[in-house]
Amino acid sequence: MSDPNFQVLLVGSVPLSSSEEVPKTAVQALPGRLERIPDGETGLRGNFIGFQHPVFPINVVQPRWGGQPPARRTEFNYTVSDMNPTNYDTFAIESFGVFQKLQEAAVIPSNVRFQVCFPSPLGVVRGFVETDYCAEIEPLYEVKPLEAVRRVQDNIPASKLSIQWDLPFEIGLIEHERGRVDDPYYVSDFPKVKAGILVRVTRLASAIDAEVELGFHLCYGDLGHVHFAQPEDTTVLVDLANAIE
After folding, report:
1. Backbone angles phi, psi at 38, to 5 degrees
2. What is the pTM of this model?
3. pLDDT, tens digit, 9 for 90 and up, residues 82-100
4. pLDDT tens digits for range 178-190
5. Dist. CA 31–CA 85, nearest whole Å
6. How many CB atoms are located within 10 Å of the residue 192 CB?
7. Cα torsion at 23, 214, 219, 40 (round to 10°)?
């Protein structure tokens, strides 16, 4: 990193204590290299999506997360009103207030954007919902993060905002289809995996205003600081990135 023009992207989680400590530390450690800074997903969000399982009805949540699904598949006929708010918007708006004060105090350069990271709806559903109910629950849950995205955009100026969608579970579905992941929670409920992912990604992209910076984080996860599958190379990531473009 001897090149002073080499830019750095912080993909979201930062192991620090607060939304104030993260940007302060980032600009000190990487002066002139950051075009956008996240709040670090500190506190309750420290384990990525780990705080999202209460969003779902307990009868469709996986037992490993305290869910109580029935022994046999049951028709519940849930609606959007049965999904609780994600609170991603609340965290983002509160953190932007801190970011804004630091920018006004010239701690953060004026040209740096505030980065807000959202997990994909597919990923959160796959992470917490029993496989038998994923297809039913995903479109209901998707409404909630899209509502949060809308509120973030309504409360943070577009010229100051960068939004990132995190897609580790999408990579997991692709790798399961390739026979490299055995975990049944990565079994897709739609037949053409890549095509189904791209349909979803298109919806997520269309929810972002034109003036807001948009990015996608493609990765192999970091649960316990271990990938769900060790990548052979970056082929899967590059292939999906090119398809998104």
Report:
1. -85, 170
2. 0.94
3. 999 999 999 999 999 999 9
4. 999 998 889 999 9
5. 36
6. 11
7. 20
